[in-house]
Design goal:
heterodimer, A: 0% helix, B: mainly beta, 7-stranded mixed β-sheet, 4-stranded antiparallel β-sheet, 50% strand
Chain lengths: 113, 113
């Protein structure tokens, strides 16, 4: 079945450091890929998405490229801020019945001032 | 529209009691999804509706769980005879039919004592 694997956290970085959170997936067909973010005490928010191979999703300085050959969708940001501290979830959605979304376990990011 | 809303935000109950949660999706969204998120894990799919029809249920949804969407608008999720293992965050999301992006509510955090 479909699944998502992402790097374990927590990840602790200093402000302005470079961020990479690895994500790989297993899926039949051609899923859409997502990164969601969950700030403390809040619900899930869509951060970015990509719907086909080689697409790059980007938002708020974050970006991720849909790599079909390596089945990956790594999240990157060139310079993190304290306000980026949150839990990040990689996810996929395939039209195998209602686009239900399969999530990774989440990676907690702490950014120190 | 203010997004997906869920009520209550928090619920504490004793083992064996019944609880009911409500989700109000973004208006005009045809699809409504329920997920469960336990501590340190990503959300897991429970069930989804297209308009008032419940089209898929996960194996996670035991006989003690029932969900309804009687008029194709709001939805309720009821858990009967709660167990401590039911303690989790219950998330609701909605989307248009052919749209893979889902919009999440803030969740209902359930604690079963």
């Amino acid at each position: 079945g479909n699944s998502v694997t992402q790097m374990e956290g927590p990840v602790t970085l200093s402000e302005e450091a470079f961020l990479t959170i690895n994500c790989t997936y297993t899926a039949t067909g051609y899923p859409s890929l997502f990164w969601y973010v969950q700030y403390p005490g809040e619900g899930l928010q869509l951060l970015l998405k990509a719907t086909k191979a080689d697409d790059k999703g980007s938002n708020k300085g974050f970006e991720a490229t849909y790599r079909k050959e390596t089945t990956s969708f790594h999240l990157e940001k060139g310079s993190v801020q304290v306000s980026d501290s949150a839990v990040y979830f990689c996810a996929l959605s395939a039209n195998t019945g209602g686009f239900k979304t399969i999530f990774g376990a989440g990676t907690r990011l702490f950014v120190k001032a | 529209d203010t997004g997906v809303s869920q009520d209550p935000r928090h619920k504490i109950t004793k083992r064996g009691q019944n609880v009911t949660f409500r989700c109000d999706p973004i208006s005009e969204h045809n699809r409504l999804y329920w997920y469960r998120q336990t501590l340190g894990q990503g959300p897991e799919f429970l069930t989804y509706f297209q308009n008032e029809a419940q089209l898929e249920k996960s194996r996670l949804l035991s006989d003690r769980f029932s969900a309804e969407r009687p008029k194709g608008s709001f939805s309720t999720l009821e858990i009967q005879r709660t167990e401590q293992g039911d303690s989790a965050m219950y998330l609701c999301a909605s989307s248009f039919i052919r749209e893979e992006t889902q919009y999440f509510g803030p969740g209902t955090r359930l604690l079963v004592l």
